[in-house]
């Protein structure tokens, strides 16, 4: 095979079963590492299973809702559901936690994480293609559905938390967007532009380059244990250019900084002035 044929062959990879299996493993491992999930798995296995399915198929659920399709359509894929359910059972209920310990080893963890990022690219492109069929030439719909299909698990995280009895609205991805959600949005925009022929690059080349970017930075972040987003410099530049520098909100007038004794600093001069006036008045009366 010649070098120029590598992207074309890569774009023809089938996700089932190996890449899908890696996606399920990585997703359920991430679920188990959430605070309080192990307790939920003991108290209510059904709630834990449903949360795991939302982690694995959240993109399908959200994109179906956006297109007015049945959100339970993913349940029709019986083999995928059985495969994801088997992974869920092994991760949470395997004796001696053997399955979880094995995939917690760094080499295996890197492998499944990299394969999961490959499935992200395929989900984005599938979502955009499906949206283009339902809403022809609707750019924003294509971007939104591609984004939802690729990062649905993160975008519906608040609903998934509710299944486990947790309510944390401050963790909304639209308020504090995580790196996977951000990079999926960028991918949805790029693949939409390419589909509408506004990006002068073949689809298989874009698929290859984008996937390499995802895998390389995912592996790098895991090896260095660096949670900083590689998109941070770009975000800072764009934020400075279009939205100005970030400034901390100033104090409301009259609300001074509280001193160590609990009184307001800006109130202290007025109090001292009032005490001085009282002394002067007392001297005059004497």
Topology:
Elements: H1 6-11, H2 18-32, H3 37-43, H4 45-66, H5 78-93, H6 98-104, H7 106-134, H8 139-155, H9 157-163, H10 179-195, H11 203-224, H12 232-243, H13 268-285
Helix pairs in contact: 2-4, 2-5, 2-7, 3-4, 4-5, 4-8, 4-9, 7-8, 7-10, 7-11, 8-10, 10-11
Give start-end ranges of low-pLDDT stretches: 248-274, 277-286
Arithmetic mean of pLDDT: 88
Instruction: Using the alpha-carbon principal axes, give the shape.
Output: globular
Query: Beta-strand percentage?
Result: under 5%
Please give the number of β-strands. Answer: 0
Instruction: Indicate the structural class.
Output: mainly alpha
Order of helices and strands: HHHHHHHHHHHHH
End-to-end separation in angstroms reads 108 Å
The major sheet is characterized as: none
Instruction: Report the C-alpha radius of gyration, rounded.
Output: 27 Å
Number of helices: 13
Instruction: Classify the helix fraction into a percent range.
Output: 55-70%
């Amino acid at each position: 095979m010649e070098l120029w044929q590598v992207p074309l062959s890569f774009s023809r990879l089938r996700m089932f079963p190996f890449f899908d299996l890696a996606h399920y493993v990585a997703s359920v491992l991430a679920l188990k590492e959430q605070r309080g999930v192990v307790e939920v798995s003991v108290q209510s296995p059904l709630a834990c299973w449903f949360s795991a399915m939302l982690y694995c198929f959240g993109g399908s659920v959200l994109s179906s809702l956006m297109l007015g399709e049945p959100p339970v359509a993913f349940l029709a894929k019986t083999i995928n559901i059985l495969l994801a359910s088997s992974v869920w059972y092994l991760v949470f209920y395997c004796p001696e936690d053997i399955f979880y310990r094995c995939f917690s080893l760094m080499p295996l963890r890197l492998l499944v994480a990299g394969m999961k990022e490959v499935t992200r690219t395929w989900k984005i492109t599938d979502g955009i293609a499906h949206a283009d069929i339902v809403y022809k030439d609707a750019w924003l719909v294509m971007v939104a559905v591609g984004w939802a299909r690729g990062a649905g698990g993160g975008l519906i995280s608040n609903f998934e938390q509710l299944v486990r009895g947790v309510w944390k609205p401050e963790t909304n991805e639209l308020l504090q967007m995580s790196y996977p959600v951000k990079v999926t949005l960028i991918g949805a925009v790029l693949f939409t532009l390419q589909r509408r022929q506004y990006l002068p690059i073949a689809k298989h080349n874009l698929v290859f380059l984008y996937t390499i970017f995802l895998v390389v930075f995912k592996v790098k972040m895991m090896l260095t244990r660096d949670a900083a987003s590689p998109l941070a410099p770009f975000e800072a530049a764009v934020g400075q250019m279009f939205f100005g520098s970030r400034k901390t909100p100033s104090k409301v007038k009259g609300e001074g900084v509280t001193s160590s004794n609990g009184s307001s600093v800006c109130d202290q001069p007025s109090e001292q002035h009032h005490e001085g006036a009282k002394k002067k008045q007392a001297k005059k009366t004497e």
